[in-house]
Amino acid sequence: MTETAEKPKMKRWRRLLGPKETLRLLEGSVVHREGALLALNKPPGLPVLGRPGDLSLDALLPALRRRLGLPAELHVVKAPAREYSGLVLLSSCYHTTKKLQQFFTDARWRGQYPATYRAITVGVPAEVEGEISAGLSWQQQGDRAMVVPVPAPGRRSLARKDVKSTLTRYRVLSAVGGCALLQLQPRTAFPEQLQVHLTLLLCPALGDHKHSSSVGRVLGVPFFLSPESAPAHTQVLDEELLSRLGLSPRQLHRLPLHIHLQELVLPEGPLCAPPPPYFLHTLRCLGLPEH
């Protein structure tokens, strides 16, 4: 596939949508509607919350409610982070919202994994399945705050909540040519947890322009770099992988993060949302089965 043929796809990946376009996109992305519950398939790049005047899911909820003919105000029960795509669970009943939020909290405490993500990674984990456990904390680096791993956090830092113990279960669903499709199930909830955990596996998510710099390579062998010695920058991919994706180095900054919230387990059963078109397109380019 030629670079010229791919350029329109790149534009769609990173093209900024206005409120009206985003609202139409959300209206057409409903995957479940029953009683007080409404589930959407969120595109990447749309934050759940934002400052007054910013484009965000929360700012669009009143208009979305009117477009869908819902009688009551919508509340966010659960949603993926800004750069992730996938399931957004909304409720028009305050008590249902609180009940489900408590359900997810209790499920994690019981050792269950109510959320399942899919991720395309650059690199293949050494083990087919396992757990990633690490302390995470916020660290100021220049003018930006970064989530960084903390090796062997002390009891005091954990008690003060300066550091949080985090855990993600992973499984390799398929692997071809140095890339993999992973299933990720976080046991804990911390900003950017999945991205950092994937770098600790030495397999950063495709399109991670914030944490992928923590994984270096010497003669093709990956190794972990401390965040202090590896400032964030556009993800670097080798020529062979760029060719498979039909990309040029100048297009890389448009590549979206390939992490998708695919399934949420509710008391009534699971809810699922298919990966977005660009995610499926990447799977085809890499020769990875969709699962």
Description:
By secondary structure, the protein is of the alpha+beta class. The chain contains 8 helices and 13 strands. Strands 1, 2, 3, 4, 5, 6, 7, 8, 9, 12 and 13 form an 11-stranded mixed beta sheet that branches. A two-stranded antiparallel ribbon has the order 10-11. Strand 6 and strand 7 form a beta hairpin. Helix 2 crosses helix 3. The longest helix is centred in the middle third of the chain and has 16 residues. The two termini are 24 Å apart. The N terminus is likely disordered.
Coarse shape: globular
Please tell me how large the radius of gyration is.
19 Å
Note the gap between the termini: 24 Å
pLDDT < 50 stretches: 1-14
Helix content: 25-40%
List the helices and strands and how they pair.
Elements lengths: L2 H12 L4 H9 L2 E5 L2 E6 L14 H12 L6 E4 L6 E7 L2 H16 L5 E8 L6 E13 L2 E7 L4 H5 L4 E13 L2 E8 L6 H8 L14 E4 L2 E4 L14 H7 L13 E8 L2 E4 L4 H10 L5
Helix pairs in contact: 2-3
